[in-house]
């Protein structure tokens, strides 16, 4: 079973350049919306992550810009959990709901870091593995 989630964003004025096109750096914020929805799906949102003693900073990201979004476009951010045993790898597709075109394809990679010691873990903590396994077995 794949673990996926969706989020929606209506492009606000402040995310656009003078030509009403989304400035490229703002797509990273839209990925965050998809990632938040995905983490909530496995009951491992940011507050739970913190309570378990971990943070998962981005250690790598790739983004391919395909089609521009504009002011007031509604975007659907699809997020899919690709890896979780040694790191989190999440893939994304941002689609313009107006016409179904893909605006961006991307992925992010995150490693677990202990909050108490600031040390990177080379395997995902069991608290994450258990949540993913519970979701996959449904």
UniProtKB/TrEMBL annotation:
<dbReference type="Pfam" id="PF13279">
    <property type="entry name" value="4HBT_2"/>
</dbReference>
<dbReference type="InterPro" id="IPR006684">
    <property type="entry name" value="YbgC/YbaW"/>
</dbReference>
<comment type="similarity">
    <text>Belongs to the 4-hydroxybenzoyl-CoA thioesterase family.</text>
</comment>
<protein>
    <submittedName>
        <fullName>4-hydroxybenzoyl-CoA thioesterase</fullName>
    </submittedName>
</protein>
<dbReference type="InterPro" id="IPR050563">
    <property type="entry name" value="4-hydroxybenzoyl-CoA_TE"/>
</dbReference>
<dbReference type="InterPro" id="IPR029069">
    <property type="entry name" value="HotDog_dom_sf"/>
</dbReference>
<dbReference type="GO" id="GO:0047617">
    <property type="term" value="F:fatty acyl-CoA hydrolase activity"/>
</dbReference>
<keyword id="KW-0378">Hydrolase</keyword>
């Amino acid at each position: 079973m794949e673990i996926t989630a969706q989020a929606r964003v209506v492009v606000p004025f402040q995310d656009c350049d003078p030509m009403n096109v989304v400035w490229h750096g703002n797509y990273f914020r839209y990925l965050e919306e998809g990632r938040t929805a995905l983490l909530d799906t496995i009951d491992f949102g940011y507050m739970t992550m913190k309570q378990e003693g971990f943070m998962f900073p981005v250690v790598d990201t790739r983004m391919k810009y395909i089609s521009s979004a504009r002011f007031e476009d509604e975007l659907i951010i699809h997020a899919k959990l690709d890896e979780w045993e040694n790191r989190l790898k999440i893939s994304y597709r941002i689609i313009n709901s107006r016409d179904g075109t893909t605006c961006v394809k991307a992925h992010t990679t995150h490693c677990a870091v202990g909050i108490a010691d600031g040390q990177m873990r080379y395997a995902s903590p069991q608290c994450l593995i258990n949540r993913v396994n519970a979701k996959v077995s449904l």
